[in-house]
Amino acid sequence: MTAGRDRGEDAFFSGAVTEPRAAPLPPPPRRESPLLRRSPLLAAVALAVSGWLLAMLWPDVAYFLSPGDPIDLGGPGAYRLDAARENRLAQIRGELLDAVPVTETRSGAARTVGRLAGTNLIVDRPGRGGPPVFEGRLLPAAARADYGEVVAAMRSRGGQVGDRFLVLRDGERPRKRWPPVAGAAILLVVVAVNGRALLRRLLTR
């Protein structure tokens, strides 16, 4: 009896007696978009809306990232409008004609919109006066629609403004307006999360 007990104790202390192994942990749940858990259709709609908003924000983001050195468009008698590039910082000199005072809807700030003498360039500048030197953003062509009423008022006063006019928003420089960039970054995250999850769901069907 003693010998048997001694052998059992020796086996226990030598490691021959083993404890039962713990069951392996289940794999972590796969992360998916909250929209995709409900319906892949909602994720597709989120992708479409995010892409549309990104397209709207892209001109502002592109201008934010554009060069900080202005394109020199010259002055009276030596204008270089052939060098104009939409959505870029530009500088030009000259006299404003047919000026129309306007007020911004959101901020209530006073601005002046007028045509640069001898050109088909509209200048939108802050305040009601200032030196005849303008430096700012050459707005994209889509922005012409925002100036339809002002241009109509200028034409009613005899202003010769063509249909394909350019608009320079004086004082607006690159790397100043962060909200469009922040909004675009958030939208890119939404697109990445929903796009990856939707693609995985389609591939696993």
Walk me through the structure.
This protein is an alpha/beta fold. It contains 5 helices and 7 strands; from the N terminus they run αααββββββαβα. It has a 7-stranded mixed sheet, covered by helices on one side. A hairpin with a 6-residue loop joins strand 3 and strand 4. Helix 3 (40-64) packs antiparallel against helix 5 (179-203). Residues 1-33 are annotated as: Disordered. The chain crosses the membrane at residues 40-58, 178-199.
Please tag this protein with its features:
205 residues; alpha/beta; 5 helices; 37% helix; 19% strand; membrane
Work out the helix count: 5
Low-confidence blocks of residues? none
The computed structural class is alpha/beta
Radius of gyration over all CA atoms, rounded: 33 Å
What percentage of residues falls in helices of 4 or more residues?
Answer: 25-40%
Q: Report the order of strands and helices.
A: HHHEEEEEEHEH
Q: What would the principal axes of the Cα set say about the shape?
A: elongated
- Average the pLDDT over all residues and give the rounded result: 84
> Numbering strands along the chain, what is their spatial order in the largest sheet?
1-2-6-7-5-4-3
How far apart the termini lie comes to 65 Å
Give the biggest sheet: 7 strands, mixed
Question: How many beta-strand elements?
Answer: 7
Biased composition (Basic and acidic residues): 1-10
Keywords: Membrane, Transmembrane, Transmembrane helix
Transmembrane segments: 40-58, 178-199
Region (Disordered): 1-33
